[in-house]
Write a structure and sequence with these properties.
Blueprint (H helix, E strand, L loop, with lengths): L4 H7 L6 E4 L3 E5 L9 E5 L11 H20 L4 E5 L15 E6 L17 H13 L2
Antiparallel strand pairs: 1-2, 2-3, 3-5, 4-5
Bound molecules: adenosine monophosphate and zinc ion (ZN).
Length: 136
């Protein structure tokens, strides 16, 4: 992907603070970290997001993200959030698949989502829809 900034980072055409690399995966520091050490773990090959990736590659990125998370805990983080934003409406801004590995501390003021309540039978209904979508 010619214009993709993360492809350029993998190729060394744009600078990055690399923390990990193997045959398929590359990991580097996010330029706007939730906390110092916030890392992006990406497949070297261009995929738009998780829905575009073969399962095997999803596994490779997840294993590398866990390695990085373990390393971040070892240097002092108290917890780690691991997550991916898939699609514009889910907050994806860079359309080369990436997994965020975010160091956390009890007093870091980073807030996660607030859960809503289900209305009536909505919980059962949506569970049934997802079950059917998984097994059409
Ligand atoms: P997302 O919203 O999941 O697409 O997140 C994209 C992330 O990429 C953001 O957290 C940005 O701070 C980060 N980012 C964008 N450009 C760069 C770059 N050149 N080097 C490192 N991180 C970047
Ligand atoms: Zn790319």
């Amino acid at each position: 992907m010619e214009s993709c900034i993360f492809c350029k980072i993998v190729k060394g055409e744009l600078p990055s603070s690399k923390v990990y690399e193997d045959v398929d995966v590359f990991a580097f520091l996010d330029i706007k970290p939730v906390n110092p050490g916030h890392t992006l773990v990406i497949p070297k090959k261009h995929y738009v997001n998780v829905h575009d990736m073969p399962d095997e590659m999803v596994g490779k990125v997840a294993i590398a993200a866990k390695k990085v998370a373990d390393a971040i805990l070892k240097i002092g983080a108290k917890g780690v959030n691991i997550g991916t934003n898939n699609g514009k409406d889910a907050g994806q801004v860079v359309f080369h698949a990436h997994t965020h590995v975010m160091p956390r501390y009890g007093n870091d003021k980073f807030s996660l989502w607030v859960g809503k309540e289900y209305d009536g039978d909505e919980r059962q209904e949506v569970a049934e829809k997802i079950r059917q979508s998984l097994n059409p």
